[in-house]
Design goal:
The chain contains two helices and four strands. The protein is α+β, with helices and mostly antiparallel strands. It has a four-stranded mixed sheet. The longest helix is centred in the first third of the chain and has 21 residues.
């Protein structure tokens, strides 16, 4: 499915909101991309935005990584 420009923007903004909520509930962990690359908040937001412009939605999981409850970010087709 191809998202309209507005849908793409809504998708990445929703992804940012979910990420912010997860960070608040799980402080001190890592932010991880699908390949388990550790990224900063800015890099994670850029990745979420790029995923939306590729017509993908973002999904999140929490799991333990290096002994800390961390956030794994992945994308699925919209």
């Amino acid at each position: 499915m191809v998202l309209s420009n507005i849908e793409q923007e809504e998708t990445w903004l929703q992804g940012w909101d979910v990420l912010d909520d997860l960070i608040e509930r799980n402080p001190g962990g890592y932010l991880l991309l699908p390949d388990y690359k550790e990224v900063s908040l800015g890099e994670a937001r850029d990745w979420i935005q790029a995923a939306a412009y590729e017509n993908n939605k973002t999904v999140f999981d929490t799991e333990y990584y290096k002994g800390k409850k961390s956030i794994l970010i992945n994308k699925v087709p919209a």
